[in-house]
Specification:
- Helices cover about 35% and strands about 25% of the residues.
- With about 80 residues, the protein is of the alpha+beta class.
- A 5-stranded mixed sheet has the order 2-1-5-3-4.
- Strand 3 and strand 4 (about 55) form a beta hairpin.
- The relative contact order is 0.29.
Length: about 80
């Protein structure tokens, strides 16, 4: 199962900082997260960056290994 790590507003919307998700590709993983956590996380995901093993990814067809680590990073203010 892939490990999804949430940061800042994403963690607040998901109600957790990490969870395990079974998904074969990025698109199905994101769809599962939207279904699990509802509209608030869906809104956060729309403006967030997703990192797969430390690399920014956007392609929904991107294959995920069973032990993949993904980070959901919403925009950060300040600086």
């Amino acid at each position: 199962m892939a490990t999804v790590r949430y940061f800042a507003a994403a963690a607040e919307a998901a109600g957790t900082t990490t969870e395990q998700v079974h998904a074969d590709d990025l698109g199905s993983l994101l769809a599962d997260l939207r279904e699990r956590h509802g509209a608030e996380l869906a809104r956060v995901l729309e403006r967030s960056s997703v990192l797969h093993e430390g690399q920014y990814v956007t392609d929904p067809a991107r294959a995920l290994a069973h032990d993949a680590v993904l980070d959901v990073l919403p925009p950060f203010a300040g600086g």
